[in-house]
Amino acid sequence: MSPVSASPAEVARGSSPVILALPHTGTDVPPDILARLNDEGRRLRDTDWHIHRLYDGLLPDATTVRATFHRYVVDANRDPSGTSLYPRQNTTGLVPVTDFDGAPIWRDGAGPDEDDVADRIARFHAPYHAALAAEVARVRALHGVAILYDCHSIRSRIPFLFPGTLPDFNIGTDGGRTCDPAIERAAAETCAAAAGYTSVVNGRFRGGWTTRHYGRPESGIHAIQMELAQGSHLATEAPPFALDAGKTARLRPVLAAVLGRLEAMAGNLRNAAP
């Protein structure tokens, strides 16, 4: 666990039409909140481990916006209203009360109440999205179009959330509503052509709140989520969740190809924008 950052969002501005959002790589937990987590919660098992490192440098001019706080503090990829992204399916909420296995993460009697949720939205969720929205607006003003690529990972097998084994590449566009069809197609084709990997479009993960909230292709803002199965890049999907150098070296060119194709499409998307 890292020292708590002074800011809930780290922003690195670039000149590309592509923005990389990283809502779940942060491990900051303020001491007052950490004291309320139980032993399981303090493991921070549901972090998107090393995703910021995996994407680092793949598209040198891309803007990045990274949440520094952990999703157990408040989940930056959940609707601040508390509305479920996946009704009638097991999932975790805006301020989770369990981990992805359904195990409690808070000490008895120390779980978040309504005041806690409101406070965490104000202190963490809202500032992160203010930073992200500002960069989306800046990039769209610069290029006439913005492509928001939301970077995620998750364990390959989590029976509480989904049956079986997750594909390596899980592309989400909320059924095609959050981006131009050409963006979804480019990502899907690149992943499908990658030897030794599996992929799906709008499977169990169709895109979280970030993708659904910002994706407005009719306004020149296109959003797509990439959920990577952690078996594609981690040595083991259990503590210490270390990156596997060989897997990473093999995966990064595929991700770079996806990002490169999206960036190259910006001109055509701009010309097609109303």
Structure, briefly:
This protein is α/β, with parallel strands linked by helices. It has helices spanning 31-34, 39-42, 51-55, 114-143, 181-192, 209-214, 245-264, 266-272, and strands spanning 9-12, 18-22, 63-67, 146-154, 169-172, 199-201, 221-229.
- Strand residue percentage: 5-15%
Anisotropy-based shape: globular
**Cα-atom Rg, whole angstroms?**
18 Å
Uncertain regions spanning at least 5 consecutive residues: none
- What top-tier CATH class fits best? Alpha Beta
CATH superfamily: Zn-dependent exopeptidases
Structure classification: alpha/beta
Could you state the order of secondary-structure elements as H and E? EEHHHEHEEHEHEHH
Number of domains: 1
Average pLDDT, rounded to a whole number, is 95
Report how far apart the termini are.
46 Å
Blueprint of the fold:
Elements: E1 9-12, E2 18-22, H1 31-34, H2 39-42, H3 51-55, E3 63-67, H4 114-143, E4 146-154, E5 169-172, H5 181-192, E6 199-201, H6 209-214, E7 221-229, H7 245-264, H8 266-272
Parallel strand pairs: 2-3, 2-4, 4-7, 5-6
Antiparallel strand pairs: 1-3, 5-7
Can you offer a commentary on this structure?
This protein has 8 helices and 7 strands; from the N terminus they run ββαααβαββαβαβαα. With 274 residues, it is of the alpha/beta class. The chain has one domain (9-271): Aminopeptidase, CATH 3.40.630. It has a 7-stranded mixed sheet, with helices on both faces. Strand 5 (169-172), helix 5 (181-192) and strand 6 form a beta-alpha-beta unit. The chain starts with 8 loop residues before the first strand and ends with a helix. 45% of the residues are buried. This is N-formylglutamate amidohydrolase. InterPro entries: HutG_amidohyd, N-FG_amidohydro. One of its GO terms (molecular function) is hydrolase activity. Keywords: Hydrolase. Pfam families: FGase.
